[in-house]
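User: For my dataset I need records formatted as: sequence, then structure tokens, nothing else. Please produce one.
Assistant:
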Amino acid sequence: MAVIGASTDATKFGTLSLNTLIQFGFEGRIYPINPHAMEILGLKTYTNLKDISDSIDLALIAVPAPAVPSVLKECVAKGIRAAVVYTSGFSETGKEEGLRLEREIAKISKEKGIRVIGPNCFGTYCPASGLTLPPGAYYSKESGNVAFLSQSGGYADRFCQEAKGCGIRFSKVVSYGNACDLNETDFLEYLSEDPETKIIGLYIEGVKDGQ
């Protein structure tokens, strides 16, 4: 997993995400990407994706909105097939520049074959694989049969925290934000075929493909 936008500044979202993965106990290899640091949170840091000899399954992207399209293209060049774009500043702003950038991300996804969760989201929480939302270092590590989809990152976090105290355990939770590529219908279809999931809950603010 590559964390693009990790920083020596502990308050930056990329670093918060990286630290959360470490605390939660993700067991896969993690590659922080930052051209201005040699080490972040005890992990060797890489200037760019090209410097990594291993293949990468997932990119977590937390760079400023204008830089996201070029970063996605770098992911494609590296052979990465999936990305979570945490970054905000896209269609949710209602501004033309944000809309343009989001359309560009969607175009890269469609034409280059990289699937995108987000932008403006918290991504995925899957206890079985050691993935967790950026605020979720202390979520339960025990898997369950409940899946939850949420357009809102904050609501996904709140639901996971409340559920822990109620004894509810999750198979997968997805905070998908603006859904420029993968949306609630895609995730619902996936979860309906997921043998680990028996119950699906959703918090949605709009449906892109109602039928």
